[in-house]
Amino acid sequence: MAQVAINNDGSMPDGSAMLEIKSTTGGLLFPRLTNVERDAITTPAEGLFIYNTDEHAIQFYNGTAWSFFSPTSCVPQQPTSITGNEYPDCNQTGVTYSIAEVAWASSYNWTVPTNATIASGQGSTDVTVNMGTQSGNVSVRAESGCGNSEYKDLVITISTPAQPGSITGNAFPEWNATAIAYSIDAVNGALNYTWTVPSDATIASGQGTTGITVNFVANSGNVSVRAENSCGNSDYTDFAILLFTCGDQYTDVRNSQTYNTVLIGTQCWMAENLNIGTRIDGANNQTNNSTTEKYCYNDDDANCDTYGGLYQWDEMMQYVTTEGTQGICPDGWQLPTDTEWTTLTDYLGGSSIAGEKMKSTYGWYNNGNGTNTSGFTGLPGGYRSSSGSFYYLGYDGYWWSSSEYSGASAWYRNLYYDYDQVYRSDGSKTYGFSVRCLKN
């Protein structure tokens, strides 16, 4: 068989070659086949060469399998980066991770954290993972017939439940109060909630859920809760509890205003006039809006600091007519009814003499001070008239009840500087009077 030379200079082939291709302007072009086309060749001869367009490499048949022609150059490089969620939820399913294609790679091997599983995509550039309860690495390497790359890692941290938000409930329950409710909004991914309460309190119901009821005894402390699942626990959220006993100072959490309290008979009264809301001028009526409004005598904020706010009856009641309602009082307190005012004055010996026991020992015109033996500490805060004017600061004190007299008027009590009596009258709901709160 003759030797063959392919060239453009007319030279003979080298003596050692059956075929010599010589050129300074072109190259040798192998047959170009995909993997499918390559594998369709029946009984390929050992040593058969092709260019694989899927693998972007020259391959030859070694007698048993297709191999890459240059083992050192066709080993895939390490994948550059893995994209996907680094902080999946506990037991989250369908979490995807992906990489860019790697030259020379024919397959990709993925590994996932302990007790996670690869739901789909093993061998490709994209996988879907069902997470378990443990953190770890999602890793991948590129593989080919030449060899395998190093693994590329993405650190995965399984997230434990978030810390619960604020706890809602009564921050100032009384001694031995029972079935006091506390609750939180549900936390995403939480399977359980652990609550703790002050040392001598007990959880009556709801442990493990988003809401509990508590029976208190005498100790203040924190009501606390954390969210839990099989991956771990959140930090605790705390809610400070200060057990209230009548006679303690009470703090209104809405504006941090503090009030002395006093037990008179079986009734627990605030010993100061309520001072809550945004001041408006006396020339304007208080309105049913999202803001609690108050008058300060002569439109002077300093008078509210001393005597408390003045309120029209509807504003005080928060635009309901149910006597004994909470109205503008803080949680756990109510607006006294006409009957409850009578209970107070009867306990103090009757309305004809109770005023002297209810008036403060200072601040009344012409030495009209009382003895304040009741601890009520009534001050002469005056009132705001229906026309918007202010009258009788230092002379008289006026306090609403939550009981209507008619559609346009309600019962109130007042004290005068020169009388020891407590007067019971009805007045227009448009007046601005002082407000006292009574413990539920």
Could you give the topology of this structure?
Blueprint: E1 4-6, E2 19-21, E3 32-33, H1 35-39, E4 49-52, E5 57-61, E6 66-68, E7 83-84, E8 95-98, E9 107-111, E10 117-120, E11 126-130, E12 136-144, E13 147-148, E14 152-156, E15 168-169, E16 180-183, E17 192-196, E18 202-205, E19 211-215, E20 221-229, E21 232-233, E22 237-241, E23 250-252, E24 257-259, E25 261-264, E26 267-270, E27 278-279, E28 293-294, H2 301-307, H3 313-317, E29 333-334, H4 338-347, H5 351-358, E30 383-384, E31 390-391, E32 396-404, E33 409-416, E34 422-428, E35 438-439
Parallel strand pairs: 1-2, 3-4, 27-28
Antiparallel strand pairs: 4-5, 5-6, 7-8, 8-11, 9-12, 10-11, 12-13, 12-14, 15-16, 16-19, 17-20, 18-19, 20-21, 20-22, 23-24, 25-26, 29-35, 30-31, 32-33, 33-34
Helix pairs in contact: 4-5
